[in-house]
Amino acid sequence: MSHTVPNQYRSEAARTLRDLPKVRTSVTSATDNFNHNRLRAYGEIDTDRWRNWARDVKTHTLTNLDHYLEQAEKSLTANGVHVHWANTSADALAAIREVVSEHDLKSVVKGKSMLSEELGVNAYLEELGVHVREADLGEYIIQLLGEPPSHIVGPAIHKSLEDCQQLFHEKFGTPLDGDPDTLAQAAREALRAEFLAADLGITGGNFLAADTGTLALIENEGNIRLSTSLPRVHVAFVGIEKIVPRLEDLAGFVQLTTRAATGQPIGNYISLIQGPQHRDEVDGPEEVHVVFVDNGRTNLLADEEAWEALRCVRCGACLNICPVYRQTGGHPYGWAYSGPIGAIIAPGILGLKEAMPLPYASSLCGACTDVCPVRIPIPELLLHWRERAVEEGLAPKTEELGLRAYTALAEHPQLFSIGGSLLRKLPWQRGGRALPVLSGWTQERDAPDPSSRSFQSMWKDGIK
Ligand code: SF4
User: Fold this and answer.
1) For residue 294, what are the contacts with CB-CB under 8 A and spacing of at least 6?
2) How far is the CA of 407 from the centre of ligand 1 (A)?
3) Domains of the chain (ranges plus CATH)?
4) Does any ligand 1 atom lie closer than 6 A to the CB of residue 306?
5) 0.85 exceeded by the pTM?
6) Which residues of the chain are modeled with pLDDT < 70?
7) Which residue's alpha carbon is nearest to atom 6 within ligand 1?
């Protein structure tokens, strides 16, 4: 499946709903599960207090980001880690090319990293002739299928068990009715050889403590643990917003992130990377590199309203609860980050024009903010980007004209009354054909019969 771009969102969402009904079923079922587990896990702790704490720590860090990034660089260097700075995705790719060519690296195992998706690391390394194997089970499945991830935490969330049974039957000869354990065992065996052959491990970074230079990675399968200990070189791509001030902050962030993401009290494996292998250690890489990636994040930070999106810990809770994302999964968004969080960071990172119409892919119901562990005011930021789209002439013209017409009507009660009685006479029940401006809405659903009387006349009569 080819990767799309955000500008194709409307047509790709319509295509998914029309041609791929199984996607909606799979995504809804998986996100229901995530939501159920998150609700239970949030109920086990004083979540509001932890969410306030996490919001405040992230806000403090972002407000003093220059200080904490310098401190992190010093701590990492003291630990023997090589630090690279990448302003753009091209800089980040140049950094890994340098490492690959210096060590003549040929084979990569990669732990799940959305930042590496954002940067296009796999395609770039393959162009250089380096073999790349995704080691997270979900990422492995979609790599075999040639698809991009559909969710931040569950990349293969749009696939059903039957889809996976068919794929594993074709690739590994497992039975067509193989249970999930049988499929996981087949993947484990295939990946074991990849781990042993790899000379480079690539990961992202959930958090990086500035005071000790500790890189924290959360996972459930152990693939990140292996990717960071078996190959002789480890490269971690870390967004500059992933810094936290102190090692002790990790305790709060790790548990809050996993509760929000999967409803677990804590991930099965938490790796705290402190540098390359020491002389008295039995395993670990000879070299560790951290590539700090900006790629538009300082633009976002400079935006007086949109900067709050940088608090994101990529838990995916806002995707799980979003009534828009849940219909299609992540592919129509055309970018590494989908759902509500994708819609508020894409304009900052890609540019508003390139990100259109993602800020409009929301009903503004606010469910995303209710679950966000770092209290990002997502609907407010969506409105912020919509306002900017209107200012820059990027908003859909029909919406702009419609709102202008509505404003004119709403400011003139008599006109409003005439307009209302005209609308009540239109043939609403004919699939909206008489109302081209609403035809997109009525293609998929019946419009309700309008009331026979206007609110104004009911009000005058004391609403009966
Ligand atoms: S915006 Fe909030 S809920 Fe959504 S992925 Fe980020 S931290 Fe999680």
Assistant:
1) 85, 86, 87, 88, 240
2) 35
3) 22-297 (3.40.50.10420), 407-460 (no CATH)
4) no
5) yes
6) 1-2, 427-444, 464
7) 312
